[in-house]
Amino acid sequence: MDMKVEIRWVKETDSTQDELRRRISGCDNMSVIAAEFQTAGRGQRGNSWHALKGENLTFSMLLRFGEGGFPPLNARGQFVVTKAATLGVVHYLNKKNIGCSIKWPNDIYVRDKKICGMLIESVLDGENLAYSIVGIGVNVNQRDFPAQIVNPVSMTLLTGEEYNLEDEMEILASSLADSFTTVLSGKPDAADEEYERLLYRKGSFYEYTRCPEGETFEGRIIGTTEDGLLLVEDKKGELNKFAFKEISYII
């Protein structure tokens, strides 16, 4: 299924997250704001998102819940949005013959290099989500990255091809819309098995750091809980649960 999504391009903005929020009253469910350049792109953990002008996909998609959108979603189950978003990007990259995995909770990795990052921000209406804004940055045509950017990779570095960003935005938006529609329209468990299977480093022992203590330990990722906590078994056989920002990968 190829779903048509409304995409609005802007030449430059502070961040597509903020741009979509400013325009939200005029945006339907799954509308996209894409920017050629962000002056203050935002990533997870309060980090900035670096992307050279006109070389990558930087955009935000609106997900509405309730009237005019997807069925109501309780805030306790909102990790399903992360699962659907990451799988939408994975499916798109797979069609480009780029195999990838999901570094919990929502980075996309090709082997040990990052090709995509996300920032998902949600607003509540009582106990349910009113809407979510899913911000995504995909490294597409960029070949050179600043030294401070850790382990980046792009589509063109992997395939040797140059991509038309407007064409790729259409294809990726359609892939995301398919994934959100499948998962959020009454089938929240549709993404569970695939998300778990694609988890980066799952099943083998690697070094991690407990935050904020700074303690290093060896563990292996087992999976995630229903509410999105990461399950990591240590060398003693003890199962640890980590929330976002409580564990850091050593790569």
Topology, element by element:
Elements: E1 7-13, H1 16-23, E2 32-38, E3 57-64, H2 79-95, E4 101-103, E5 107-110, E6 113-125, E7 128-138, H3 155-159, H4 165-184, H5 192-197, E8 205-210, E9 215-224, E10 230-234, E11 239-242, E12 247-249
Parallel strand pairs: 1-2
Antiparallel strand pairs: 2-3, 3-7, 4-5, 5-6, 6-7, 8-9, 8-12, 9-10, 10-11
Helix pairs in contact: 2-4
Briefly say what this structure is.
This protein has 251 residues and is an alpha+beta fold. It has helices at 16-23, 79-95, 155-159, 165-184, 192-197, and strands at 7-13, 32-38, 57-64, 101-103, 107-110, 113-125, 128-138, 205-210, 215-224, 230-234, 239-242, 247-249. It is globular, with a radius of gyration of 18 Å.
What is the gyration radius calculated from CA atoms? 18 Å
Count of DSSP E strands?
Answer: 12
**What is the count of DSSP helices, taking H or I runs of 4+ residues?**
5
Structural class: alpha+beta
Largest sheet: 7 strands, mixed
N-to-C terminal Cα separation, in Å?
Answer: 37 Å
Helix content: 10-25%
DSSP strand (E) fraction?
25-35%
The chain-level mean pLDDT equals 93
Give the H and E element order. Answer: EHEEHEEEEHHHEEEEE
What's the shape?
Answer: globular
Which strands sit side by side, in order, in the main sheet? 1-2-3-7-6-5-4
Query: Which stretches are poorly predicted, pLDDT < 50 over at least 5 residues?
Result: none
